[in-house]
Amino acid sequence: MTSSKDRLTGKETRVASVRAAKPDQGVAARLMVHCLEDKLVGGLIMAIETTASFTRGRMGLRFRIDQREPEARFMPVSANGNGMAQWLDPEDLRGARRLRVELQPARSPNLFYDFDLAGVDKALDAIPCVRTRS
To answer: Do 117 and 18 meet the contact criterion of CB atoms below 8 Å apart?
Structure first.
């Protein structure tokens, strides 16, 4: 858990993160959860960031929480080009022990990551956030 102060408002921002068990093809990844404060769409936001840069546009992603059925998404690459956000509601991770993610970049091989989610409930509870989106 890291925290920083907003220099304009003085508010503390907390970010929970966990690194993947190991890099894939030399590319490391981490999951990050933080609070998006907004009157209309506020709430916890989860992102995956890597040490690679991806082609702008949309990218496929598949994930599996514990032994649940795998799910697929086709999401925009983040503005900084190294991952994507908002592909999963962080609340869906409560009680989970493991998250496996496969990124499917347009112009490079797929990347697979395994995340140990031990302590995820405690981490989510430590991020103060008001959910305003439905």
So the answer is: yes
What is the C-alpha to C-alpha distance for residues 6 and 29, in angstroms, rounded to an integer? Answer: 26
What pTM was computed for the model? 0.88
List the beta bridge partners of residue 45.
34
Beta-strand pair 2-5/12-19:
antiparallel
Q: What is the end-to-end Cα distance of the chain in Å, rounded?
A: 26
What is residue 27's DSSP assignment?
B
Mean of per-residue pLDDT scores for the chain: 91
- CB-based contacts of 25: which residues, under 8 Å, 6+ apart? 109, 111
Question: In this structure, what DSSP letter does residue 125 have?
Answer: H
pLDDT at 80 over 80: yes
For the chain, the residue count is 134
Q: What are phi and psi of 50, to 5 degrees?
A: -125, 175
Amino acid at 88: L
Q: Up-side HSE of residue 86: CA atoms within 13 Å toward CB?
A: 12
* CA dist., res. 44 & res. 86, Å (int): 9
